[in-house]
Amino acid sequence: METIALLICAIALLLVYFYHRFKRLYSYFDHHGIPYVKPILVFGNTMEWCLMKKSLSMILADIYEKLEPHRFGGLFIGRRKVIIVRDTELIRSILVKDFSSFQDHVTAEDASKEDVLDRNLLSLRGEEWKNLRIKLTGTFTSGKMKLMFPLVRDCGAKMHSVLGNISQDEDILAKEICARYTTDVIGCCAFGLDIDSLNDPNSVFRQMGKRIFAFNIINVLRVMLPKLEFFFDLFHNDKAVKQFFLDLVKKTVKHREEHNIFRGDFLDLLINLKHDNDQKSNDRQAEEDVQKFISQVGGKYTKTHIEMTDELITAQCFLFFAAGFGTSSSTMSYMLLELAQNQHIQDKLRAEIVTVLENNNNELTYEAIKQMKYLDMVINETLRKFPVGGHIDRVCSVPYQIPNSKFTIPEGFHLTISIRGIHYDPKYYERPLEFYPEHFTEQAKAQRPHYTFMPFGGGPRVCIAERFARMEIKVGAVYLLKNMSYHVSPKMKLPVEHAPEIALFEVKGGIWLRCKKLQ
Ligand code: HEM
């Protein structure tokens, strides 16, 4: 009896202790006179995320809205204090002007030094990141995109023939067909493989893609309980997936080196970097992009030697795969859903595609997709309404006084920018809830402040592959739409509900569309 009483007392004392600790922690922003959204004990502002009811990006977008009209505010991701930046001028300072104080992504803190695949562009920090980014910049110029265009077009043509086999009025899962296309594209451009997951949905590559994005509760716990990270790492790394990619790249690099094979894909460009570390580029755009990058990072760049080993090459290819296929296929499937719901936009877009193709002898060329201006508007509006990376983050590396405020962000603090919040802000978009490609006429774009459209992030750390992603989505859209029409299937659950457990925006139950062949 006595023992039970003692136990109850001990638990009660512990609860009181933790209650006070949390209370003190959660008074931080009050104490500094910073507006914030009231947290809930233990969970902070992210209870719905922990309970897998809402994605983190959606929660951040809600907080962005609640903090109107403040330039910035506070929130808690579990126990972690985070600043959310709302004002576009302040966003510019953080992403560009004062970039040197906010160079790293939060992911860099999670990266393991022992894990070779964690030495990828997204996870590297400081000088190591800068040097690698400069090296890889030349891989994504328009010239290189033009080289890769035929490879992407071949995957588009394959998707077109798969769609051709679909029986009249069949229902399709949009994300599935788009993901098979983008898996083939990235497999072909980053790994030099003809994967053909379009015809073989169970290809090893497609399975690997599904495993990379398989959600687990570990991801939530890692953020909530950072001190136990070493423990979660035991579960986190899907070692089989990593080994698969390591073996694959090593084998392909060896084969290409031995047989002198050149395909013009990412892997070739990375192998070139391996053999000629400081090769002089004869790509003018690469030089310009690098100069722009160096001026943006604040002239503090010290060139250091990076040896492009097979492991480092694999780490980049693996990231291109992980960052590339899900983002682009989600964007494409959201675009199809909106087009199915807005037949007049779909008709107008198809008319543009058909006209441009006719004017180009029915051939899809790199130049032809550049002429499809309405397609650009539709893609931009899709990326506005469904920014697959719904928020971006930065880590503050030196104490930073927020301009025109008394608050100094301490070193190590996390910052976040809600891309989704900004994209739905009625201050910047006339019809935020509608699918309205006219948000992206030249005139509308010129009237909006900078940093109000950021699906690819911003500043020197912006998505390195924006040109590639846009090319891939445009080619995919042409093949999807030129002689097929899309309608909402009776199986589709509307209004759309987002699946909270996936890092990228996904739709609960999937996007079901009815596909019709046109003459
Ligand atoms: C619709 C497609 C895509 C979207 C919306 C997207 C979005 C983003 C965003 C928001 C970031 C973070 C930027 C920041 O923090 O400022 C990022 C980074 C990155 N993305 Fe993408 N991305 C897309 C496609 C791709 C593709 C196809 C690849 C590779 C082939 C790729 C490779 C990367 C890499 C390597 C980074 C890290 C850059 C760095 O830290 O230096 N992305 N992307």
**Which strand-content bin applies to the residues?**
5-15%
Structural class: alpha+beta
In terms of quaternary structure, the protein is single chain
Distance between the termini: 84 Å
For the sheet with most strands, the description reads: 4 strands, mixed
Q: CATH topology of the domain at 22-116 and 390-454, which one?
A: Uridine Diphospho-n-acetylenolpyruvylglucosamine Reductase, domain 2
Q: Helical segment tally?
A: 22
Radius of gyration using CA atoms only: 24 Å
Backbone shape: globular
CATH architectural name of the domain at 22-116 and 390-454: 2-Layer Sandwich
Strand order of the largest sheet: 1-2-7-4
User: What is the class of the domain at 22-116 and 390-454 in the CATH system?
Assistant: Alpha Beta
Helical proportion, percent range: 40-55%
Low-confidence stretches: none
For the residues shown, what is the average pLDDT?
87
Named once each, the bound ligands are:
protoporphyrin IX containing FE
